[in-house]
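[recover] target loaded
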């Protein structure tokens, strides 16, 4: 379950109250996080508990970094208690704007973990996320391949300084993903959940925006050798030379102007 969105399992040990901070990687695109808001961000499964020590297996979304820090502060009120074999997943709260959740992850979301015969999880105050036990997780989503591919290509950061040939490959790939999305929607019309259908349409719109931007960049790369130069730079140089010529004709003596015109006529 969720193999396509989680990292490989990591074994973590807790021997005293611990603060676990979840934070988005600096290089990750907001588009990728936005498309992943319907999935769990991290999953815990308790594998061993020994009085005040515990071992659990962690899987999380690859765009999130985990930082463990020992804490001496015990929390009296906890959000969830887990025993051996039980687990929990962290989801964004329903009804909260994704932008708010993304901003909180950018700043860092803290999770307090304590062990005393059981493992206790407590989210920081005003957290826009919630912990859901595995046995009560009704948000499980088996995503179609077209949806997974669309999210993957949206999360990719393109280098707009790449040569035209590589930009053309990216554009073709976007076209293929959009075509797969439309075919899936057409073939599964009336069969898929309305929420999934709405998400597919949103992703198609985001893909269209990215396609237009890549296409514009591709045409610009064909019109000029370097993206650091404007496409109308040659026209500006011609206009500048014409102004210089007009000034020369006004300031130069008449015999010099006649000589220049005669030489130009002879060359033609």
């Amino acid at each position: 379950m969720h193999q396509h969105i989680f990292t490989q399992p990591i074994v973590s040990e807790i021997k005293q109250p611990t603060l676990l901070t979840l934070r988005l990687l600096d290089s990750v695109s907001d588009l990728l996080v936005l498309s992943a808001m319907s999935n769990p961000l991290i999953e815990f499964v308790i594998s061993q508990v020994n009085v005040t020590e515990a071992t659990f297996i962690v899987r999380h979304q690859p765009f999130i970094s985990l930082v463990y820090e020992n804490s001496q502060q015990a929390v009296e009120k906890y959000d969830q208690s887990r025993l051996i074999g039980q687990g929990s997943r962290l989801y964004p709260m329903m009804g909260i704007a994704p932008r708010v959740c993304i901003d909180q992850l950018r700043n860092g979301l803290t999770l307090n973990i304590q062990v005393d015969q059981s493992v206790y999880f407590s989210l920081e105050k005003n957290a826009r996320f919630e912990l859901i036990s595995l046995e009560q997780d009704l948000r499980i989503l088996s995503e179609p391949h077209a949806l997974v591919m669309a999210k993957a290509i949206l999360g990719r950061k393109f280098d707009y300084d790449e040569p035209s040939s590589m930009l053309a490959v990216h554009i073709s790939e976007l076209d293929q993903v959009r075509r797969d999305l439309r075919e899936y929607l057409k073939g599964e019309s009336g069969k898929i959940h309305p929420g999934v259908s709405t998400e597919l349409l949103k992703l198609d719109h985001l893909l269209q925006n990215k396609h237009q931007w890549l296409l514009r960049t591709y045409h610009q790369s064909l019109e000029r050798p370097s993206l650091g130069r404007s496409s109308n730079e040659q026209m500006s140089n011609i206009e500048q030379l014409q102004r210089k010529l007009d000034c020369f004709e006004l300031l130069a003596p008449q015999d010099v102007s006649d000589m220049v015109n005669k030489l130009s006529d002879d060359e033609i």
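[recover] notes: The first strand starts at residue 10 and ends at 14.
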